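Now for a specimen:

…
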Amino acid sequence: MATAIMKQKGIPEMDDVEEIISKISEESPYKRRPTQKRTWMTVPEMGKLLGLKKTDRYWLVHKNVFESKEIAGKIRINIASFEKWYANQIKYHKVTGEEPGKELKSWSYSVKEVADLLGVDDYLVYDLLKKNQMEAVIVDYWKRIPKESFQNWYKSQSRYRTKEDREKDALLEDATITMPEMAQLLGTTRSAVYTILDNPKYASFSYSITEFNSCSYFSV
């Protein structure tokens, strides 16, 4: 009934009203624009984000580790370059708790991480670096070992083993015997065992023994 009366008096329905309001809003020069993403921040904002005092803030800016320039009489920091720097260093930490060095950690190890992988002390890794057995890069005065460099070194030697490989080796050791043990079981000499293994008849057996003995720290 009310709708019929509104139509008779030329009053638009609610749906029509909303459509008219929406159209006016779209065409209005005063309509609210979408918020643009910020590309620059002030030095105090950067310092607050990293929990730095005034002197430390400007000292970091003058190191030129990220892009900065003067805008309207004040130094501004490019946010994208700041985030790139943050992802490739581990010294500074945001007060928000966001982890630093994400990119850095994706392609390199710290000395401690390599030591933990090999189950050795840090000083041994430093000794390997000193002897140029592994390559290293300096990031914020700290040595980092590229993962590719570590893998190349690891494949070139057999003395040091990762925890995962040590576990695999332990399983292999439990499933196999050494040459002296085999000789003792057969009541013969080690040379006689090698003669047996050289026989084509025992080729597959010989292969498994040879593979086992390739691990440098097992006695043969």
